[in-house]
């Protein structure tokens, strides 16, 4: 029995090491363009690393059992009864419970605190969602874009999104930011993000605004491009919109 535990444990170590190396050398995430996206990606990467030893523990047990205890030929009788191993059971329960409690605090509560720590905004964008269009308003600039096909933001400035709906529940989601918030009729929900990269939907499809809540037959069409500009370019864009307004 000790021999079996030794070889199964050795297989577990090998599989865990291979999994860690594979994850550390693999880019698992799509293009990110916000400070918040980096926080969320780091959390997912950390959770994946924590999950690898658990996954490989189960996998090593299955592989070793199939190889070591496989029945050859026609079975003539039932195998010996398998009894519960108390120490192994309690150890498994204790380790997995401790791991679950740990991730509640890190990256759970720790990540939420990092995402919501700074509630000072350089720019306010009011997002009004309705079937199946967008209305983007920049109150600091006096700009309102009705049935907007594109959301324009400046890079390296803290954005406060004030999200609302006029009809049904929608969800405001920017894949490159990894952030989303529901738009609920009768209330305004807040989302903060700080863009860190310039670009547009033409450069990467993750630079888009998407409704992430099934809202009716036009749900799949409820999206708009996202363009992130340097501060000077954004100010020039804002001046053009103001000059073109009636």
Description:
With 246 residues, this protein is an alpha+beta fold. Helix content is 41%, strand content 24%. It is built from four helices and eleven strands, in the order H-H-H-E-E-E-E-E-E-E-E-E-E-E-H. The strands form two sheets. Strands 4, 6, 7, 9, 10 and 11 form a six-stranded mixed sheet that branches. Strands 3-2-1-5-8 form a five-stranded mixed sheet, covered by helices on one side. Strand 2 and strand 3 form a beta hairpin. Helix 1 (2-24) runs antiparallel to helix 2 (35-68) and helix 2 packs antiparallel against helix 3. The longest helix is centred in the first third of the chain and has 34 residues, at 35-68. It is elongated.
Structural features:
41% helix; alpha+beta; 6-stranded mixed sheet; 246 residues; single chain
What is the typical, i.e. mean, pLDDT? Answer: 91
The largest β sheet comes out as: 6 strands, mixed
What structural class is derived from the secondary structure elements? alpha+beta
DSSP summary: helix tally: 4
Could you estimate the helical fraction of the residues in percent? 40-55%
Radius of gyration: 26 Å
Strand content: 15-25%
Give me the strand/helix succession. HHHEEEEEEEEEEEH
* Gross morphology: elongated
Strand tally is 11
The N- to C-terminal Cα distance equals 84 Å
- The poorly predicted ranges are none
